[in-house]
Design brief:
By secondary structure, this protein is of the alpha/beta class. Among the domains are: about 100 residues, MutS, connector domain (Nucleotidyltransferase, domain 5), CATH 3.30.420; about 110 residues, MutS, DNA mismatch repair protein, Chain A, domain 3 (Orthogonal Bundle); about 210 residues, Rossmann fold; about 35 residues, no CATH class. It has 25 helices and 16 strands. Helix 6 crosses helix 16 and helix 8 crosses helix 9.
């Protein structure tokens, strides 16, 4: 760093903290107008420089705190680095970016893709997980849990689908597949949770069952800790925390001897000294069935606090004390026949009849009775002892409640002092719980342990979609995947990009999503539904699946598609996995085909990512011939035959095979969807009239290379080209305003003859 830009002040001097930075780094500072640091001005400068309408394609949001600084830098470069007008034919030009912009990721934060929290996008598949954000590398989306995560929860454990487990699974997924919001700079590959833990629990079902029983007593410790830190905890929260922490030793006992869980055992052992006393204090202080709130008390056990016990005793045993006091008055003072009672107006009293009051005047003086109320036939008195009892009884409920609240606050304060150990305990237990769920699923469904390697390979034999396999059972058709280095059965390399063609509704989208899901599961340490698999580590999994618009942001369906595609192209690395489904379908056929072709070429570079590209542009399959070492063709097989009554029928076999498909059977799908037969028949007629046999009539699209000479006009290219007919040139030369009807007729006859000659 040699120069620092800062917002200028009225004194033209740098602010104090800027001055300290300049002095510490020994660099110069340049003041810039304050308006250049405004967000709106910065956005305008960035969008103008890169010629884009949105920054989403760069993985940047418009509220990114780095944008004002970036905008100021761009304006500064325009002023200082723009070529002179003489060097550009008298036209000043703004500097042209040589590469797309990407957010910078500090080296200290590159240890895993979790350094940049995704904006709820990238990899989890929309058809399988109801989070639409998981279907595409998008910048926004709902946050509901989806089907795949729900299936993972349905295990033999009695733990149930707790948010802590979902949080752990989501964290692993995000660690394995950060979105384009992260930088493209080199960084270590993510280390998935050790699948040995899942293997241990999948093989030792007895320990897994015991662990599930213990974890059933653990609540969402992270959420409870947050509520306690914010002073919003309820009695049930504090009791749930105590019970959860009390399982620490039991969890360690179940996992004792399992080497794969050594790291978790070390974590639990490290926090035990802090959490064991807290768990004992909470469990011994609070009742087993706590109230929902403390408005009426009932949280603290009897025998814990003497003051609380006294207040409760006064509430429960006031009648017994009064009867005992009345007996003492009769025996010790000699007030036989007196009555001790209570009045809501005057409180507690000692009542004597008029006769008793005269006869017991000496005893009344000796006992220091004070007249409180005079009635027609009786006198009511009170003593200091009775007054003190009255004060205690009338405030007993309030004192008991206040004392319970004080003890509750003490427990919360004790928990707050141990929030770090509590958080560590909650994270460890959530991870163990998630691993148990994965192990249960693997054991119940017969999943296999994938081999995770460092090389850029992806080999899955007999792979099955984790959700559809469970829903469809034996009806689901497994398929193989071979991408990248040493992916073939014989150990040879396979192209890193596979183009998948085939009919509508044949299973293309299901297959590519299945591959993304299995890759993601392998990175979380899970077993996967397959016969065998070798998965090369991925830094991110990008998907562009489905069709959606963003009307609230002024973006059409095609604009959203291109923005997400740009995000992928700008951030995918050789370690990424890219899933693309029908790119270019939102615009004209020629524009869409051109974009799809160029995108394939971009991804099929020597250091391109592993890519599955599903498309209905059958022309793209020519790439496999032009780039045989980088592109392979796959197709979804179908069986086609003609029935006895002459109707053509097809059956989707859902089997992925090498090769290219020749048609998409869109009319057949329309028929299955219930489109009226007349519409389908008319569509068949129109299709027949629009179909053009291109074999021998079109020139193959060539892959990108050095600039070539202008092609001759002797042969039409794949894309439509219009050549003027000689008759049209003569027609343009006619002066119709100066022609007689006979001359016009002769000219028309000449044009007709010219067209016949050309034919």
């Amino acid at each position: 760093m040699r120069e620092l830009l800062f917002s200028e002040t009225h004194s033209k001097e740098p602010p104090e903290r800027v001055g300290l930075v300049l002095e510490a780094l020994g660099i110069s500072g340049t003041p810039r107008p304050a308006w250049q640091f405004r967000r709106e001005e910065a956005l305008e400068a960035i969008k103008t420089t890169f010629g884009v309408a949105s920054l989403d394609g760069f993985g940047l949001s418009e509220d990114d705190p780095a944008l004002p600084a970036a905008g100021a830098v761009i304006r500064y470069l325009r002023e200082t680095q723009t070529p002179a007008a003489e060097a550009t034919n008298g036209k000043p030009q703004a500097p042209t970016p040589t590469r797309p912009t990407r957010p910078y990721t500090p080296a200290s934060a590159r240890r895993s893709p979790t350094c940049s929290r995704p904006a709820a996008n990238a990899t989890r598949d929309a058809a399988s997980w109801t989070r639409s954000a998981c279907a595409r590398s998008r910048s926004s989306g709902p946050s509901a849990a989806g089907a795949t995560r729900s299936r993972a929860r349905c295990s033999g454990s009695s733990c149930g689908p707790r948010p802590a487990r979902a949080t752990a699974t989501r964290r692993w997924a995000d660690a394995s597949s950060a979105t384009g919001s992260a930088a493209r700079s080199p960084r270590p590959s993510p280390s998935p949770p050790d699948s040995r833990c899942v293997a241990t629990l999948a093989e030792d079902r007895r320990s897994a069952a015991e662990l599930g029983t213990v974890l059933a007593d653990v609540q969402d410790v992270a959420r409870i800790g947050g509520r306690i830190a914010l002073a919003r905890a309820t009695p049930r929260d504090i009791v749930a925390l105590g019970r959860s922490l009390d399982t620490l030793d039991r969890v360690r006992a179940v996992l004792a001897g399992a080497g794969s869980f050594a790291a978790f055992d070390a974590t639990l052992a490290g926090v035990r000294e802090s959490l064991a006393p807290l768990a004992t204090q909470i469990v011994s202080t609070c009742v087993e069935t706590p109230p929902a709130h403390l408005r009426e008390g009932g949280l603290i056990r009897d025998g814990i606090d003497a003051e609380l016990d006294e207040a409760r005793g006064l509430q429960k045993d006031a009648g017994v004390w009064l009867a005992s006091y009345q007996t003492r008055l009769a025996e010790e003072i000699g007030l036989a026949g007196c009555k001790v009672g209570y009045n809501s107006v005057f409180g507690y009293y000692i009542e004597l009849t008029k006769v008793q009051a005269r006869d017991y005047a000496e005893q009344i003086d000796r006992a220091a009775l004070t007249r409180k109320q005079t009635l027609r036939n009786a006198e009511r008195y009170i003593t200091p002892e009775l007054k003190e009892f009255e004060d205690k009884v009338t405030t007993a409920e309030a004192r008991a409640l206040a004392r319970e609240q004080a003890i509750f606050r003490e427990l919360c304060d004790a928990a707050v002092r141990q929030l770090r150990p509590v958080a560590a305990f909650g994270e460890a237990i959530a991870s163990i719980d998630a691993l148990l769920a994965l192990a249960d699923k693997a054991a119940h469904r017969g999943w296999v342990r994938p081999q995770v390697v460092e090389s850029q390979t992806l080999t899955i034999h007999g792979g099955r979609h984790p959700v559809l396999d469970e829903l469809l059972g034996a009806d689901f058709v497994p398929n193989d995947t071979e991408l990248g280095a040493a992916a073939a059965v014989d150990g040879s390399d396979r192209p890193a990009l596979s183009l998948l063609t085939g009919p509508n509704m044949a299973g293309k989208s299901t297959f590519i999503r299945q591959v993304a899901l299995l890759t993601l599961l392998a990175h979380t340490g899970s077993f996967i539904p397959a016969d065998r698999a070798t998965v090369g580590l991925c830094d991110r999994v990008f998907t562009r699946v489905g069709a959606d618009d963003a009307l609230h942001r002024g973006q059409s369906t095609f604009m959203v598609e291109m923005t997400e595609t740009a995000n992928i192209l700008n951030h995918a690395t050789e370690r990424s996995l890219v899933i693309l489904d029908e790119i270019g379908r939102g615009t004209s056929t020629l524009d869409g085909l051109s974009l799809a072709w160029a995108i394939c070429e971009w991804l099929a570079t020597e250091r391109g990512p592993r890519t599955l590209f599903a498309t209905h542009y059958h022309e793209l399959t020519d790439l496999a011939e032009q780039l045989p070492e980088r592109v392979a063709n796959l197709q979804v097989s179908v069986r086609e035959w003609t029935t006895a009554d002459g109707h053509e029928e097809i059956v989707f076999l859902h089997r992925i095979e090498p090769g290219r498909a020749d048609q998409s059977y869109g009319l057949h799908v329309a028929k299955l969807a219930g489109v009226p037969s007349g519409v389908v028949a008319r569509a068949q007629d129109v299709l027949s009239s629009l179909s053009v046999e291109r074999a021998g009539d079109r020139a193959a699209i060539q892959t990108q290379g050095p600039p070539a000479a202008e092609p001759e006009r002797g042969q039409l290219s794949l894309f439509t080209e219009y050549v003027d007919h000689p008759a049209i040139a003569q027609l343009r030369e006619l002066k119709l305003d100066g022609m007689t009807p006979l001359q016009a007729f002769d000219a028309l006859r000449a044009l007709r003859e010219l067209t016949r000659d050309e034919a």
